[in-house]
Amino acid sequence: MTDSLSKESAPGRADGGRDPGALPFIAAAALAAGAVALLLGLVLGGSVTARVIPGLPDAGALTRWGLPVSRHVMDVAAVLTVGLLLLASVGLPSAKGRLSTEAEGLVRAASWTALLWGVAAAATLVFQLSEIFGYPVTELVGDQITSYAGQVDQGVALMLVILLVTAVALFGRTATGAPAALALLATALVALLPPPLTGHAAAAGNHELATTGLALHVLTISVWAGGLCAVVWYALRGGAELSTAAHRYSRVALWAYIGVAVSGAASALARLSDVGQLFTTPYGLLMVAKTIGFAVLGYLGWRHRTVTLPALAEGRRHAFLRLAGGEVVLMSAVIGLAVALARTAPPPPREGTVDPVREVLGFSMPPPVSAQTLLTLWRPDLFFILLVAVLGGLYAAALLRLRRRGDRWPLGRTVSWAIGLLTVVAVNLTGVASYAPIMFSVHMVQHMTLNMVTPIFLVLGAPVTLALRALRPAERRGDRGPREWLVLALHSRFFAVLSHPLVATALFVGSTFALYFTPLFGYLMNNHLGHLYMSVHFLLVGALFFWLIIGVDPAPRSIPHLLRILLLFVTMAFHAFFGMALMSLSGPIAPEWYALVERPWGPTVLEDQNAGGGIAWSFGEVPNLIVLAALFVQWIRDDERTERRRERHAARGGAGGDSDLDAYNAYLAELDRRAQGGQRRE
Known about the structure:
By secondary structure, this protein is mostly helical. The protein folds into 3 domains: 22-48 and 60-342, Formate dehydrogenase/DMSO reductase fold; 377-472 and 482-640, no CATH class; 652-681. Helix content is 74%, strand content 0%. The chain has helices at 22-45, 61-91, 101-133, 142-151, 153-171, 178-191, 194-197, 200-203, 207-236, 242-271, 277-280, 282-313, 318-342, 356-361, 371-376, 382-405, 411-428, 431-435, 440-460, 463-470, 482-490, 493-498, 501-516, 520-525, 528-550, 561-583, 591-596, 605-618, 621-651, 659-681. Helix 12 runs antiparallel to helix 13, helix 16 (382-405) crosses helix 20 (463-470) and helix 17 runs antiparallel to helix 19 (440-460). It starts with 21 loop residues before the first helix and ends with a helix. 38% of the residues are buried. Pfam families: Caa3_CtaG, CopD.
């Protein structure tokens, strides 16, 4: 299979070349399948059935049907945009970072689908407003639309989508480089997230699991389905690099399929109270139908990997096109079912006492905090489970590749990486995660661990160095594979600015003050996405700072050891001042939030906040000692390497063994020669 990636394009056309007549047929069949699945799903779910409720207005049939149709068009356009950009940026070979003519054509096509995506999002916004107010679309006024788009979460989410995809549509008209196409792909992926983060998932009982699961589901299914559509479109237009594109997509599709399976299971677990609801409720039946379609698609993907891709590598395209065309049609039907599922209300939770804390947090108030509950009251979070699994799995895979190649890797780095991942587990999947939203002191333990402990061990694990050693260079000269993209990112101007010592230190220190001494903390605490943002931000800025101080991986600039020590002591002083400032506050931070999750036990909010300030003031002692020890060890080793280098130079016959001294002696000799020449002329 690897050899097929280096084949020239000619075999890819051996048994068919362009087949433009099949493109409209497959497109029409896919649209019809999606429309039929959407219609059946809407009828089964009952979301288009007129419900007359006395005293409440009815938005009318246009809104009942227009909203799911516009949402379906929006989803299809989003999938196509992501797929076209994915194929253009990483699926097709590039020459020294410049897109090929075919890849540029894919980006131009993506700009048109992004435009359709934006128009459908605007229509969805209007229909949503009509449904919420119960007014027909024709009776809505401009002030209502602007107010909804700027103040209501669902409206703001759609406005973000419109702005992001408009940028993709505009810049996609002129993009010619692979980095630009990759940036457009990243923008399109971000544009997928706002609607699911404000839909049914955000209101589910276990909304942490539901929100993360749905966001992952949308991302992975868009990559999977969009990539397939793009490859089929490219094949029917006689793409010269079809074998390469199909093999590269196959690798991405496998991981996307796994992501769809995991996220789908998480979403079902968050919305269904028992397995019986799968077969006794419209929501469950639609989920079963979607799962069956998903399983069939998985089988077709397996057939691709075992039958059609080897044939495609030999120049036989028809088997691939037949199977892929049918796969696109089935996938369109699954997307139609997904839209209908999103329009169907999940089954109500089991009857019981209304728990206001559960409504806010997604879980009930935990018992009084103790060492036992912190260790035993596990709180699974899909995001951090996947984060630890992916980071640990990639590191292990890289180690395995080095071992097979006969290369050695320091055991200490592996142990350090494992400790770093264990600290992520300790503060995000145990009782710490359960108490952090309701106790500021526990939240501060979580913050300080992610910001000052986890990054130390992760950067000492040297993941970038390991990746550069494990990843293979691109097989084609001038093309970019994962290794080339990593090197490009490390040498980019953006990364050079971000890794400047002053910038990294300002982010490390300033973000802490900006979070806790502004309304930002209260805003972020009010939703699960805000919790994730804080945790990821703390982890990233901490990793950036400690990478500059004690990192083993290559950096854009070399920082003297004395300056590293100075930066470390400066941040220590600021963290101590931050803790003292917290303890001196006369009122609680984010009082509205802590009123929503008021505890019937333990210290008051202000007392707990003072304890959190004390933790912030004293927490950095042990991590800073670890950093200082690592820094001094690195300093000694650097000096030893420099001395050995000088000794080797001297042993090879260098004048004195010191290049700087040699240059200075040569300079003095040149001055002496000139002076003697001047004396002779006199």
